[in-house]
Design brief:
The protein is of the alpha/beta class and 376 residues long. Helix content is 35%, strand content 23%. It has helices spanning 3-18, 65-77, 95-109, 135-148, 165-168, 209-221, 241-249, 263-274, 307-319, 333-340, 357-370; strands at residues 36-45, 48-57, 83-92, 122-128, 153-158, 176-178, 181-183, 185-187, 190-194, 230-235, 254-259, 282-288, 293-295, 298-300, 325-328.
Length: 376
């Protein structure tokens, strides 16, 4: 084979190999996205070549540029039929090219991507009748569990008034804005979106009615989620506007009700589940938090007992189908401290799922939820 033919064969093979490099935010091939503008091969010795790759990122200074460059470097350097030395030059797309890319992505998505017929995404809305029962902690740990189990996972902090997910996932950055389309922030394997990620979010938010509903619609329609397997929503406490907005925007959502053992919490938790009588959401089950405190081998029921089962029984009778008590979680100060430090407590420091009681409980909960519900 002539030198020119060999160079052309290598360049063609490299374009194919780069087609397997996926942009971490958009979830698509960097060649399909037009991020590779040129691949040029120069022979330096027998079966030894220099490779110049021109990369155009969607935004200048993209925080994931190093990750993308490393994947390109691996794709080139691992070419099996010759020794290739890659040289990667990183730039940014022109405004025209970026505008065309975003227009193409929006056309493919067509508004809210989660309410289309045949959508594969399972949507779990985590609700509670009152605040302070650990709903957001359970939402965060459930989403982290799905991600650790290998599911492509997204989470929306739909608690507009008391957003917690950025802190629980250790997120301090803002979503990347691509000409009006937002890229969710990824932490611990979960794609996240929260009003708490935006400037001025620490100020009191007093939204009602249409504006509140619009905030959820924006999180669904103006964010590039890709095609996740699971979407977890951390709802605001109670049965107000946001629960109705979720039911309207996500008719396939499945409700998980969180309570604590005492009657003052469980009686109110029932009301959050009874919203399913008015909107097309199925209640999948109940999670009882702060069920007990482990002290010297003894389980102390600090907040009483039986709240989760009471909610389960009442919802089963009212809704006419089985609403099981799916999990009972202990009161554990270490869980709170780990979450508030920015790592979901169900994960080890390397992002893997813990194999102790907490990890096993959340694994069982996630696996149970991913089963298809009994429609009887």
């Amino acid at each position: 084979m002539s030198e020119q033919k060999q160079i052309e064969a290598i360049e063609s093979a490299l374009w194919d190999r780069l087609g397997h490099v996926i942009d971490p935010e958009l979830g698509r091939s960097i060649t399909d996205l037009g991020m590779i503008s040129d691949v040029h091969v120069t022979q330096t010795d027998t079966d030894t070549f220099d490779v110049s790759v021109q990369v155009e990122l969607t935004v200048p200074g993209c925080p994931l540029s190093d990750q993308i460059a490393a994947q390109i470097d691996d794709a080139v350097a691992s070419y099996p039929d010759a020794t290739l030395t890659p040289s990667i030059t990183v730039g940014a797309m022109s405004e025209t090219k970026l505008h065309d890319l975003v227009a193409d992505l929006k056309a493919q998505r067509r508004q809210n991507p989660f309410n289309k017929p045949g959508i594969k995404t399972r949507v779990f809305a985590v609700a509670s009748g009152k605040g302070g029962v650990g709903k957001s902690s359970i939402s965060a740990n459930l989403a982290a569990t799905f991600a650790a189990l290998g599911y492509d996972t997204a989470a929306i902090d739909a608690d507009i008034y008391g957003f917690s997910l950025p802190r629980l996932f250790g997120v301090h950055s803002q979503p990347t804005n691509l000409n009006g389309m937002l890229m969710p922030v990824t932490a611990w394997g979960v794609k996240l979106m929260s009003i708490g990620m935006f400037a001025g979010a620490d100020r009191a938010i007093l939204w009602r009615g249409p504006r509140l509903q619009r905030s959820l619609e924006q999180f669904l329609a103006d964010v590039w989620w890709g095609d996740p397997d699971v979407l977890v929503l951390d709802l605001a406490p109670g049965t107000g506007d946001m629960a109705i907005s979720v039911a309207q925007a996500l008719p396939n959502a499945e409700l998980v009700v969180v309570t604590t053992p005492q009657p003052s919490a469980s009686d109110i938790a029932v009301r959050s589940g009874l919203v399913a009588l008015q909107v097309p959401m199925r209640v999948r089950g109940v999670v009882e938090n702060m069920s007990y405190y482990e002290h010297k081998g003894e389980r102390l029921e600090i907040f009483g007992a039986g709240g989760g089962q009471r909610v389960s029984d009442q919802l089963t009778r009212a809704l006419g189908y089985d609403v099981p008590l799916m999990a009972q979680l202990p009161l554990d100060p270490n869980v709170r401290e780990t979450c508030e430090a920015g790592r979901p407590a169900v994960l080890n420091e390397d992002g893997s799922l813990r194999d102790d009681g907490l990890g096993q409980t959340f694994r069982a909960l996630a696996e149970h939820l991913m089963e298809q519900p009994d429609r009887r």
